[in-house]
Amino acid sequence: MIPLPEIEGAPWPEFKPGSVWLVGAGPGDPGLLTLHALNALRQADAVVYDALVDPRILALRRPEAELVEAGKRGGRPSAKQADISLKLVELARRGLRVLRLKGGDPFVFGRGGEEALVLAAEGIPFRVTPGITAAVAGLAYAGIPATHRGINASLAFLTGHDQNGETPAIDWEALSRGAPMLAIYMGLGHLPEISAALIRAGRSPEEPTAIVSNATLPHQKVLETTLARAAQEAAQAGIEPPALICVGPGVALRRFLAWREEEMGREEETGAAS
Ligand code: SAH
User: Fold this and answer.
1) pLDDT class for 79, splitting at 50, 70, 90?
2) Does ligand 1 come within 6 angstroms of the Cβ of 108?
């Protein structure tokens, strides 16, 4: 088992039986896990995980820990969410240390807030540990600064998908004016509607756009396109989820900063595994 470093003045929290820790596992690359997440994996009796959590991260749990898959795709989302929250309550009431492990950050499009509200209402002690969210990781691994002096002083995280599977009710005009850099989660399915809404709201059809799929993983792919062509090119290229869509002038900096592709190219040349 990987040891945790001893850090003076920062003892590792003890996972109390009957409590739930909501923890972000990051975007995939196990190196982007936090030490708090590792501490949780080392103590948990039950790990309730989403489909997006990388198997190499799950493998860091105690061998005797119970594994419960929660994030199956499809089905009625609201019923499913209630089931997951009830499962957490049930496991905690059995006196287990329950680790709720989510892709990215638990409070960013992860429904962590909904689960925490149920735990709070049921009087179950909980702790929330952030993780590196897909937007932050996807931008970094694609070589696109999330903010850049002189280019953008704000950015917005948005979802392309609401709980009914529709394009969410977003004030596209306000968003277009207010956020020069957009990081769109769950946007692949509704990309034609999203790009059309942004262009109608005033964004340039020529605006640099990048679609980062499987960010931080060995099979990461980045498609560079424009807002107007994004949907068609993504379909033609067969881009697979999970994918993050980045829209903004800062995307153009990739031309100088695409370190990950360079690294992957070098690994291919030398035959090294990534
Ligand atoms: N809580 C997660 C988001 C869950 S929603 C977080 O903070 O990252 C799922 C969406 O996240 C996916 O549809 C995709 O848009 C994005 N995503 C998650 N992992 C990703 C990855 N490795 N590469 C690109 N996008 C990812």
Assistant:
1) low
2) yes
* Catalytic pick among 29, 45, 50, 105: 50
Report the C-alpha gap between 77 and 70 in whole angstroms.
Answer: 11
Mean pLDDT of all residues belonging to the chain: 93
Instruction: Determine the number of helices (DSSP H) and then strands (DSSP E) in the chain.
Output: 10, 10
What is the total residue count of the chain? 274
Cα–Cα dist 102/110, whole Å: 7
160 Cβ inside 6 Å of ligand 1: no
Which atom of ligand 1 sits closest to the CA of residue 102?
1
Is it the case that residue 76 has pLDDT exceeding 50? yes
User: Per the residue annotation, which of 16, 72, 83, 171 is the catalytic one?
Assistant: 72
Taking the C-alpha atoms of residue 21 and residue 240, their distance in angstroms, rounded to an integer, is 31
pLDDT of residue 274: 45
For the question of residue 72 being annotated catalytic, the response is: yes
Q: Does 143 have pLDDT greater than 50?
A: yes
Domains of the chain: 20-132 (3.40.1010.10), 135-258 (3.30.950.10)
Separation of CA 7 and ligand 1 centre (Å): 31
Is the shortest distance between the CB of 220 and ligand 1 below 6 Å? no
Catalytic residue from among 29, 54, 105, 186? 186
Tens digits of residue pLDDT in 151-208: 999 999 999 987 777 878 899 999 999 999 999 999 999 999 999 999 999 999 999 9
pLDDT tens-digit series, residues 43-68: 999 999 999 999 999 999 999 999 99
